[in-house]
Amino acid sequence: MTRWLNAHRRAAARALRHLLAAPLSTAFNTVVIGIALALPLLFYLTIQHADQLARRHAPRPEISLFLKPGATEKDASAIAGRLKAHTAVESARFVGKDQALKALEARAGLGDIVAGLGRNPLPDAFVVAPKASHVAQLTALRDEWARWPGIADAHVDSDWARRLDHFVRLAYQAVWLLGGALAVALATITFNTIRLQMLAHRDEIDVSRLIGATEGYIRRPYLYFGAYLGLLGGSTALALSEAARFMLNRYLEPVSALYGLPLTLPPLPATDMLLAVGLGGLLGWAGAGWSVRTHREYT
Amino acid sequence: MSRIALSGVCKRYPGQQEALSGVTCTIDTGEMVAVTGPSGAGKSTLLKLMATIERPSSGTILINDQNVGALRRAALPFVRRHFGLVFQDHKLLWDRSVFANVLLPLEILGYGRRDAAGRARAALEKVQLLHREKASPVTLSGGEQQRLCIARAIVHRPTILLADEPTGNLDAEYARSIGALFREFHQIGVTVVIATHDEALVQQLQPRVLPLRDGRIAG
Question: Which residues 109-138 of chain A have a CB within 8 Å of chain B?
Fold first, then answer.
């Protein structure tokens, strides 16, 4: 165990020495990887913020619960009680069938049609504003309430929420696609850097192999090298995205004040920051692994 | 036990005639053997086969009763760790110091830093190069480079020492000092196999001689 740890400690130290031995090349690779990771990171941050902002400030979606024909006042107050006690309900208001008919009459062009009706065909209804705004949550609530006794039908007025959901999903997919493409780019940069490193240390690899080095021993420093590059690239990406956020916020601040909306971008949560750096390290390690496996002739 | 046994070993490189054909011999633990013969006789090939650097085209090679020709590639490094290898061209790492060159086998074996440093200095002292530990191998003379190569070969205390032309290109005085080193290792129980065409070295060490001619054991 101690020997295994010693071997890892040595490999990590050797990789660090190789990294520091060529500061210019290291800096160049780090910046390229940093830019590649910063783009999806900033895009992700912007979409996440826009999504939250839109859901907080856009009109709330509503669910209409239509009571069965012949529902009594007692039935209506039972449903009102259940809605009041429900944790997912922000507010609920009762719309009686007479009130609904008057509203229909008031709409331009419908007065004559309503006057021609022999009786009021509209049911009593509750218009509920749920706390949730995601389509899936709204649909689940609609299905739950449609099963309540006394409810004839439930309808979600969620066109806006549906459109927003579609847009957000599309934007996230674009982020993942961009992120995926740039992750491949990062792995490729690491692949090539490791290939050059292995070529530069070919004698050392040959001699080590002759005197009893395992494949693991030979490959380990290059894997650490790749991981270091990725970690440095991830950290650079964070720094770049923070710098870009700072600059964007300078333009967004006056617009925010003008519209009374918090448009400025918040910083990435600490967990997302750690994740971005960790992901950089992981991609660097993977790119290095790909390279050392491909260039077997040096190992 | 560090016994080497070859049975009907042949080695043919692609597009060339056989470098070795039907070599059968046994080298016992603690024995000193000189593989002699002119250039192209197959001495280096024989040593490379023993060191598992090359695989035989046919025949078997047993190291401590283990058929190394049948081993997986991943298992070979563990066999090589029994050996100390002295190369004809030294194979030193020019971007590392003398001390770091000697440290390499111990790094591969995973020794702790302090222990490894102690062993590396002891090996350098043995070959009288401790005073040059911080120097670059480029600044060493041919004899010093050969001694450095020997220090790297013995630092992990191998049970078998394989040396390919260890006195080639050295003047008589340096060659004698290197011969004396091999005698010392033999006296402490190390199996020593030397490929050489240096008659003086053979006279000095008086080993069992394994003469090679055209890839076959002569006589």
Answer: none
